[in-house]
Specification:
Elements (H helix, E strand, L loop, with lengths): L1 H26 L2 H22 L8 H7 L4
Helix pairs in contact: 1-2
Length: 70
């Protein structure tokens, strides 16, 4: 289930970047477009935190998949 959530987060971030570009080109509203890009960056950093391994070589998502008790 967590894999689906992370996948949807990445897709949402991609759509935010595309939407920001079109908003900037159509309306010229740079502030809102940059806020959308910032939101996409925060979402992608969150996905990276969950999926990239730490110094011990295990990612937080692997710990969740194995169970919190172990």
């Amino acid at each position: 289930m967590l894999d689906a959530v992370l996948s949807l987060t990445v897709l949402a971030a991609i759509m935010l970047i595309i939407g920001a570009f079109f908003m900037w080109r159509r309306t010229g509203n740079l502030k809102n477009a940059l806020l959308m890009v910032l939101l996409a960056a925060v979402a992608l950093v969150n996905v990276a935190i969950w999926t990239l391994p730490d110094a011990s070589g295990s990612a937080p998502i692997e710990k969740v998949d194995r169970g919190a008790g172990e």
